[in-house]
């Protein structure tokens, strides 16, 4: 099975899509796919579909959606090549792929691929390379992880509370990986190459301090100190106006360092934003479902 959720939902068995077009069965598949090979409780599925206000027929309706998914899975399984060896294991049925388990349902991936799992694997390797000072490997690995994203997670799925929480978690993971990849590129002296990307990112994530700090550093190292200071002042105005907050002490120190340093002078680590700041504490703004 191939599971892709980092963009448009695409779940395939034998290369055949098993994703329904109807919104609610699609929600069910999305939640099962995100937790492939794990039991998703019926209560969680009902909460996702009806936001805490299920109709009396909720369980029966959910069973109907599961049957619709199994019909699609069954059609995909029919595409399997005939078994050459009569002693081979019997063909799987739709119930073997979408299993009824104690208290819920489980989508069995059969050892297939998942873009979320691959993203987490590559990002984890990238973080370890950063910790070891291997910035070139970190940039490559984190870049490969980020390339798996083709848009916002579950971009074409009608989402309820459960999927919204999952989408936010995934977007936060994406931003953490992006922050670290840019940090690795800055350590490698790629400041000019980052300017266009950071222009877009700081506009999209208008209150994300790490991204603004990285933009300031890239501009400063490119000999554009005035523009680096303008980035700080725009961020400060936005934070004060929209959130009632002043920039963090570290960002203020970075601004002061840029004021007194020559463009070619590398700023010390104590003047830079930390590379391990969790996204949730970095004042992320601009909406988590931006593509």
Task: Please write out the topology.
Elements (H helix, E strand, L loop, with lengths): L1 E3 L5 E4 L2 E2 L5 H12 L5 E2 H9 L7 H20 L16 H4 E4 L2 E4 L5 E2 H17 L3 H13 L13 H27 L3 H14 L4 H13 L3 H19 L5 H12 L31
Parallel strand pairs: 1-7
Antiparallel strand pairs: 1-2, 2-3, 4-6, 5-6
Report on this model:
The protein has 291 residues and is an alpha+beta fold. Helix content is 55%, strand content 7%. It has 11 helices and 7 strands. The protein has helices at 23-34, 42-50, 58-77, 94-97, 115-131, 135-147, 161-187, 191-204, 209-221, 225-243, 249-260; strands spanning 2-4, 10-13, 16-17, 40-41, 98-101, 104-107, 113-114. A 4-stranded mixed sheet has the order 3-2-1-7. Helix 9 packs parallel to helix 11. It is elongated, with a radius of gyration of 23 Å. The chain starts with a strand and ends in a 31-residue tail after the last helix. Mean pLDDT is 88; it is low at 268-291.
